[in-house]
Design brief:
The structure is a single chain. The protein has 163 residues and is mainly beta. The chain has one domain: Metal Binding Protein, Guanine Nucleotide Exchange Factor, Chain A. The protein is globular, with a radius of gyration of 15 Å. The chain contains 1 helix and 14 strands, in the order ββββββββββββββα. The relative contact order is 0.26. A hairpin with a 5-residue loop joins strand 10 and strand 11. The strands form 4 sheets. The protein has a 5-stranded antiparallel sheet with strand order 5-12-11-10-7, with no helix packed on it. It has a 4-stranded mixed sheet with strand order 4-3-13-14, with no helix packed on it. Strands 1-2-6 form a 3-stranded antiparallel sheet, with no helix packed on it. The structure holds zinc ion (2 copies). The site of one zinc ion has 6 residues, from loops.
Length: 163
């Protein structure tokens, strides 16, 4: 049984639930948009099943699309839609219509206790702020841009995928 993730913003106007087979918060993204989401210079994005998303307070949710300088976007808006609460600014989840089945909750918005990952992946390090010193531990992987492995594959190859 996939895990049910319950999430919310800080002010409570928005709450949501979604099913996830891949609930380990292992992927730390230091990209130009995630690093502005708050926290320690990165955001942790999970993987969940978009079809199972239930939202309360949808009228308080707005979408931000970052302008991407590099190809293939070349200063156009990227496909990622970052959903956030208009009242308190909490980031909630990412959805990209190019991959309609996938929802990427920000681990920071999840209230359910998540499992502790055995190792982490640090990605988009080429975009990290100068002052940020990534805590790269034994077994962690680090990438200037994207890792080869999808979030699903990372879970499956470690026997952590919850069917
Ligand atoms: Zn809020
Ligand atoms: Zn990012």
């Amino acid at each position: 049984m996939p895990m049910t993730l319950e999430g919310s913003c800080r002010c409570g106007k928005v709450s949501y639930s979604v099913e996830s087979s891949a609930p380990f918060p292992y992927q730390l993204c230091y990209c130009s948009a995630c690093r502005k989401s708050g926290g320690a210079g990165y955001a942790i994005n999970l993987l969940a099943d978009a079809e199972t998303l239930k939202v309360e307070g949808r009228e308080h949710v707005a979408v931000y699309r970052a302008v991407i300088d590099t190809p293939p976007y070349n200063r156009a808006e990227g496909g990622c839609r970052r959903h956030f609460c208009t009242a308190c600014g909490s980031m909630l989840w990412i959805h990209d219509p190019a991959w309609p089945d996938l929802l990427h909750p920000f681990a920071s918005s999840v209230d359910t206790d998540l499992p502790v990952p055995p190792s982490r992946v640090h990605l988009m390090l080429e975009s990290k702020a100068l002052w940020v010193q990534p805590d790269i531990r034994d077994g962690d992987q680090a990438f200037e841009r994207y890792p080869e492995q999808s979030i699903e594959d990372w879970h499956r190859t470690r026997g952590l995928w919850i069917a």
